[in-house]
């Protein structure tokens, strides 16, 4: 058995195991070639996700035999590029994107470039061919120092074709979340919020542009040759403006004849060791809120937590808003090193119609107190759309994919009052009137299944006032809007004793003037209700005379926010929206 010592170090620290006589982990049994698919791509390439999907599906169908390397370069790559990609692509003869190579082999003509959709048929050819060399790697990452140590072994089960080969060690990163044109062509790699999950992304070539040399002085590399080498690599925190997560890294090692033909390769997932004993980073990830529907003042905060230390199994999280005092939420679960988790917190109140600050911070991690900076955002929860009359009219104009659009009107408990979806693959215009029989809160929901929005939509109340309007792309995959029906009498039907109602100043502070103009004397029951329909001020029955009637309402007990003055008379029920601003 002959030991080959390469002198090519390429700027990295390398050591040779000169005393080793037998392989430690590489197979010495003859085997067929493994497949290395290099894919050339970019985030602005609309058809490239088709290639990503084809490569991923081939990998999944051939575990341990096929390995993809996703190389961002060329005219469509505005991010994630490396110093290595262009040179690799330039030798392929590619003429468009997406494009790729299978073991850098020429299958027809004079170039190695093929369309990724064709990679399966060519890869099947390669993996049935025998290989005279096996290659394998083992690796560890010291998380505290960010040092990657790689042990590589290549064993020749037969004579090589030449006296020199090249060993390549490629550093890849998985699960990079970002943008990607044409992501709908590969929906399995699209997140719930429409981002794209990039896999097998080339981050660096540890052995340089074309690899490290395996060479004998004369003749071909003989059967029984064992090549062993150890590389150390300092992992940057950021490559091409993208954070490098240690637990998302993997290595593909492969042997080439020269800069072109790849004989075989294998994959290695490093073991991460020496993880720091503690660490939590909340502020860098942030806080979001969901506005809860149902004509209420409630929101649901979500705190995004990133763990930069040991596994975490419990946390105490303090959260509050300007109108809700601090509360503590006890979270239990499992948050591993370098993982990100969205933690939904219980609902809290805000001030409807005006800005409210919401804050959250971590108090303890696994029972130990931690110092963390509160994350604070400003939330503005819109007041419900006010509707008058005993019906709602929905007018929809879809894009050319009408079958993607659906809508519904529900009550505050989620019960469907009316709903409709469309089947056509053409622009569709539709008008639907929905009877309303109760003074209550309703929710209008509209959804586009594809997520790019339709054309336009409108909702009119029974007084023919347009209370909701949206144009193309504004509702994406889902949009919900609250509607508060304040009177079942339409404006054109309300020409009774009450001629006009004014409320001023609006916004008010401690006092509100309510001016009611009457065509004839009548009695009205007057109250103030909040956005949930709860009565907060009761004036009771008020005698109103012909002409103007001025009623002073003491609002000093009300918090800032939106309210309705409700007037019940023989004409029906009407209301006036007011705001309190302190």
Structure description:
Residues 1-20 form the signal peptide. There is one protein chain. It contains three helices and 45 strands. It has 582 residues and is mostly beta strands. The protein has a five-stranded mixed β-sheet with strand order 1-14-8-7-19, with no helix packed on it. The longest helix is centred in the first third of the chain and has 14 residues, at 48-61. The radius of gyration is 34 Å and the shape is elongated. Residues 1-20 have low confidence and may be disordered.
Sheet of most strands: 5 strands, mixed
Give the strand content: over 45%
Residues in helix, %: under 10%
N/C terminus separation: 88 Å
Overall mean pLDDT stands at 88
Structural class: mainly beta
Number of helical elements:
3
User: What is the CA-based Rg, rounded?
Assistant: 34 Å
Q: How many runs of DSSP E, i.e. beta strands?
A: 45
Can you tell me the residue ranges where pLDDT is under 50 for at least 5 consecutive residues?
Answer: 1-20
Strand order of the biggest β-sheet: 1-14-8-7-19
Apparent shape: elongated
Write a compact overview of the structure shown.
The chain has 582 residues and is mainly beta.
Key phrases:
582 residues, mainly beta, five-stranded antiparallel β-sheet, 5% helix, elongated, disordered N terminus
